[in-house]
Amino acid sequence: MLFPPDRKLARTRGLWPRLVATVGLVAFSCTFPDYRFDTVPAETCDNDIHDGNETGIDCGGDCDPCPCQDDDDCPGAGEVCEDGDCHEPCENGECQPTCTDDKKNGEETDKDCGGPECPKCAIGADCKIARDCVEKVCDEICQPPRCDDGVRNGFESWDDCGGDCEANCANGQPCFVDEDCQSDTCVETAGGQPQCAPPFCSNSKLDPGETDVDCGGRDCPKCGEGDTCGVDGDCIEGVCGDDEKCAAPECDDQVKNGPETDLDCGGGCPTCADGLHCEEAADCKSRVCALPSECDGETCTEKECQEPACNDSVKNGEETDDDCGGDCDGCDLGDGCKVNRDCLTGICDTTSEAAPTCVSCDDDEENGLELGLDCGGPDCPLCQPGDECIADAGCVNYLCDGECVTGLRLDYHCGQCGDAPDDQIKFFVRLNNRSDEPIDVSDVSVRYYFSTDAPASVLAGLDLECEYMGEFRCGVQALLAYADPTDDATHYLETAIGSTETIPAEGSAELEITIRLGGLRMEQTLDYSFSFGSDYHLDWELITLHRQGTKIWGREP
Fold first, then answer.
1. ∠ CA 436-441-446 to the nearest 5 degrees?
2. Which of 52, 258, 404, 471 is the most buried (most CB within 10 A)?
């Protein structure tokens, strides 16, 4: 404020001129908020201002201790606070001297005042040094303030000037009202303490030292956009252009100005990197603006852009949706994604015109790379007979006609067709492609079911042979016990189609398969899969076809 609380009645120059001067000062201060001076008054412990490292007005830090409020304010271990003064607790009725015991004791220079611990003494009280006195002048007793005592006291705005003194203060010295100053001009400064200023920065003329009328140069406020300037420091926005005019703030002028929250970022400019200042989330590349708990060992007082995290409730960093995808956990159904690993379901649908989202094989939607409703394609199980489909490749049995139908059939004739027991089982199978598209049969196997009482050790030594015709060959063969044995099917021979070729549309592939029994004779006419087919092929459902473990043709025992 411009008047100290107790000066209103004491000033001899009258209240009205001061009020007028005050209004002028406020108007001037609002117009020139960044007024600068060369001379800055030293910090003191007796200027009735909370400055320097003081913890209160003219107390604490390098000044005398401030009055305590409770025991926690006392620096000494075990000390207690009484009437604003810390002292050792009383023992056996005897107390240490305090500044409130209504006695002159301890290091006091007068009763409860003076010395290093107690409040300063009033005028007329005993003293030893100037610091013992409220008015900072000691001649064995505390003296009243004078305008020639070399210190700031009474109503002076600085040492022996301003206030009630005839001498007015020089430029750069503190003031309360214009009348305190030799220049009759008291203005607010960036530091908050009004100071006496040269009058020429408000006379509506281009004076020496100014770069434009009442602005620029060393002593006057900074100039606005379009005003003439000499250096960047002449301008409010910190940029003096090549045309020697103060420039408007830009997002690439290498100066923090305008609405920017940090150098050329935030406030409508490009977003700020982690650790730079911000005011709101939109200022940050990470979209998180907050006070970090610690910075440089102290609590931060300015907001900073935070690093992306997987728990900040914002989509940032490498995330594909809020706190998921990228380096975070997988996203839920419907969340954004880029690749399959971004999704908990492991499927990211990048095929739609909309932004990619996480889908699954059981969301009742035909999406992603599915070739049917929740089936087919590289991510979901093949569509089963009767399932809706959109392409042959999605069907386990290779043929799509709006729904999956049989596209691959098998016919058979016996190669060893006698009805007497024999020491081998020999048969031919032909796979027929009924669809109008080529079929890859590299993941298809043939199962022939038969019955035998031979022990497992004998069966393990059987010689399995498979011949092929044309481009097609046999793959891995295995003789396995049937899981649900019957009288005519205790085992089955499984032969994989090892071809890397495809069966062309309306084409076929034929295999000749032989099981040599090594002297063991069997009556194959009793086998589940056997038929007297003489030398022609039959459409035969008792030999089954399987694709990826799923039966696509025939009837199991």
1. 120
2. 404
Tokens read off for 432: 């027929």
Of 117-131, 360-374, 428-442, 542-556, highest mean pLDDT: 117-131
The DSSP secondary structure of 376-444, one letter per residue, reads -TTTSPPBPTTSBBSSGGGBTTEEESSBEEE-EEEEEEESS--SS-BSEEEEEEEEEE-SSS-EE-TTE
Instruction: Tell how far CA 213 is from the center of its chain.
Output: 48
Helix (H, G, I), strand (E, B) or coil at 336: strand
449, β-bridge pairs: 492
Backbone angles phi and psi of 243, in degrees to 5: -85, 10
Residue 138 forms beta bridges with which residues?
142
Cα distance between residue 28 and residue 215, in whole Å: 13
The whole-model pTM stands at: 0.39
Other C-beta atoms closer than 10 Å to the C-beta of 389 total 26
Q: What is the pLDDT of residue 9?
A: 34
Distances (CA, A) of 419 to 393, 425, 428, 521, 525: 42, 12, 17, 12, 6
- Dig out the tokens for 373 from the structure: 């409703």
Nearest of 429, 411, 442 to residue 510 by alpha carbon: 429
| DSSP, res 94 | B
Beta strands in 5-100 (DSSP E): 80-82, 85-87
Please say whether the beta carbons of 223 and 202 come within 8 A: no
